[in-house]
Write a structure and sequence with these properties.
Structural class: alpha/beta
CATH architecture of the largest domain: 3-Layer(aba) Sandwich
Largest sheet: 6 strands, mixed
Bound molecules: guanosine-5'-triphosphate, zinc ion
Distance between the termini: 48 Å
Radius of gyration: 24 Å
Strand order of the largest sheet: 10-9-8-11-13-12
CATH topology of the largest domain: Rossmann fold
Length: 360
């Protein structure tokens, strides 16, 4: 790594990105990390501070999908010129991890929420909000994006220690081995356990339903001075109106991404299944000859006959197949793998018992 890129380590740059930048031939460019996106303007940070930036016309022209445009958390190749108040973004360095959600509608389109997140803190409140199935859906989304999950149970002040213990047992008996931190923003209990896992140079985000205490927790984690915004131009001079920063650097050097997309993520990402847009296909599927019909070539498939008859649009069906292979397949493969792991664990246990091996 060059010394310039070493200075970027504080913002999460590492050997992984370095290797990707070399592969792409972008290693010679100046690099910066996106801390906010405001329509066509971006706010980026590098070792010399924060700058406004815009996308290069050529980059915009060459980009076919909106998910390939820079989002919060991305590393970008940037050029600064003395004549322009904006830095010009020429490229995006490949993403190590992503949080994205399906855009509404039949066409399979994804919307980027943020990238290059190391750990997602999945927040549920002990009181009212707690739901293991929803937790599993969040875990699937997060792991599909290659983000490491940690579960936060908030509002412990509203439940008895026994109830809290039962909630944790429910999580464990669902086969979820993810680290769980219980906390109360009111008493402050457990908040330090969250602080302890936040490492400098790593990027975190909070996911969870509205009202579970994410903002309250973020406010506890943020030092006051971070809220003051000083935005300079590409030349390093002048001040401009404030952009709401979505990537926040905490006092200890850990980074926290909190953006509007993340706030809606729970509803559109983890909670909306495929059912809504493909209700017609699911209705037909119940009439297929085989209950495990994949609707691709089976005899007696009601979905395929509906296409033949013209009562189901082929394009709609193709979207269904594509989305199923892209999303449900990954989701299921993760859940199935975990079930298998669990089954394997039981198998090992019983085999040990048969052989008379017991834990000392
Ligand atoms: N009793 C109790 N109340 C809490 C706790 N944490 C947050 N609250 C309260 O719960 C309400 C919602 O908290 P927020 O932090 O705004 O929740 P949020 O998750 O940020 O919600 P959105 O901004 O809608 O995503 C507020 O009235 C908080 O004061 C807690 O640990 N215990
Ligand atoms: Zn079928």
């Amino acid at each position: 790594m060059s010394s310039a890129s070493e200075q970027l380590n504080q913002f999460g740059w590492d050997e992984w990105f370095d290797a990707k930048a070399h592969e792409k031939g972008s290693a010679e460019h100046r690099l910066a990390r996106v801390v906010a996106v405001d329509r066509d303007q971006l706010l980026v940070i590098d070792e010399s501070g924060e700058f406004r930036a815009k996308l290069a016309g050529r980059f915009l022209y060459m980009t076919e999908q909106s998910i390939d445009l820079p989002c919060v958390g991305d590393w970008v190749c940037i050029q600064y010129s003395t004549s322009d108040m904006y830095g010009i973004i020429h490229d995006v360095i490949p993403r190590k991890s992503v949080l994205r959600r399906k855009a509404a509608g039949d066409i399979i389109e994804y919307q980027m929420i943020a990238s290059n997140i190391d750990v997602a803190l999945i927040v549920q409140a002990c009181h009212f909000d707690f739901n293991v199935n929803r937790l599993e859906r969040y875990l699937v989304m997060v792991r599909n994006g290659h983000v490491h999950p940690v579960v936060l149970l908030t509002k412990t002040d509203l439940v008895s220690p026994e109830t809290l213990q039962q909630l944790i047992e429910k999580i464990r008996s669902a086969g979820i081995n993810t680290e769980v931190i219980a906390l109360s923003n009111v008493t402050g209990e457990g908040v330090n356990n969250v602080r302890e896992i936040l490492q400098p140079g790593k990027t975190y985000c909070l996911l969870g339903s509205s009202g579970v205490g994410k903002s309250t927790l973020i406010n506890q984690l943020i030092g006051r001075h971070i809220l003051e915004t000083k935005v300079v131009s590409g030349t390093g001079e002048g001040r401009h109106t404030t952009v709401r920063r979505e990537l926040i650097i905490l006092d200890n050097g850990a980074m926290l991404i909190d953006n509007p997309g993340m706030r809606e993520f729970g509803i559109l990402g983890a909670e909306e299944g495929m059912g809504d847009s493909f209700a017609d296909i699911y209705a037909l599927a119940s009439k297929c000859k085989y209950s495990d019909c994949s609707h691709s070539n089976e005899p007696g498939c009601a979905v395929l006959s509906a296409i033949e008859e013209g009562s189901l649009h082929r394009a709609h069906y193709q979207n269904f197949i594509k989305l199923r292979s892209e999303s449900e397949f990954h989701d299921l493969s993760y859940l199935e793998k975990r079930k298998k792991d669990k089954a394997f664990g039981r198998y090992i246990k019983s085999a040990k018992k048969d052989l008379g091996i017991t834990r000392k």
